[in-house]
Amino acid sequence: MSYRTVNYEDVEQVSDAMHFLSEPLGCRQVGVTFSRCPPDWNSKPHDHADDEHEEVYVLVQGSAEVRIDDESVGMETGDAVWIAPDATRQIRNGEDESAFVLISAPEFDSDGTGADAWMINAFQG
């Protein structure tokens, strides 16, 4: 099969907000998490220095703050933020519910010269 589908509500919730979608989707190189954050919820501060995964957080509903190292990044619906593997990150939700899609993957050689570089293509449509 060339595709798989899953609804985050059908995936067991981890912690107070996260649904890990990579395994049910059969992902091999990318991590995908849906996070529905209740009011006043905070994730645990963490980094990905050991696994060298960079992350992109996309806020799909509400507003929230992402603490990256010692800096607060305010986010509104539609905002995305890239986070380096060694940076400490923490989602801090405000008074209203918010929802994120979190994407993680190993860093790659973006100049295309490395043996394990990914080909980046644009979809035109």
Describe the 3D structure.
By secondary structure, the chain is mainly β. It has a single domain (18-106), classed as Jelly Rolls (Sandwich). The chain is built from one helix and eight strands, in the order E-H-E-E-E-E-E-E-E. Strand 4 and strand 5 form a beta hairpin. It starts with 17 loop residues before the first strand and ends in a 19-residue tail after the last strand. Residues 38-102 form the Cupin type-2 domain. It holds the Pfam family Cupin_2. Keywords: Metal-binding.
What portion of the residues fall into strands of 2 or more residues?
Answer: 35-45%
Total number of strands: 8
Provide the CATH topology. Jelly Rolls
Question: How does the helix and strand content classify structurally?
Answer: mainly beta
Report low-confidence residues grouped into runs of 5 or more. Answer: none
Strand order in the largest sheet: 1-2-8-3-6
Helix percentage range = under 10%
Mean of residue pLDDT values: 87
Taken from the alpha-carbon principal axes, the silhouette is: globular
CATH class: Mainly Beta
* Biggest sheet layout: 5 strands, antiparallel
Instruction: State the end-to-end CA separation.
Output: 24 Å
Rg result: 15 Å
> Count the helices. How many?
1
CATH architecture: Sandwich
Domain Cupin type-2: 38-102
InterPro entries: Cupin_2, GPI/OXD, RmlC-like_jellyroll, RmlC_Cupin_sf
Protein name: Cupin domain-containing protein
Keywords: Metal-binding
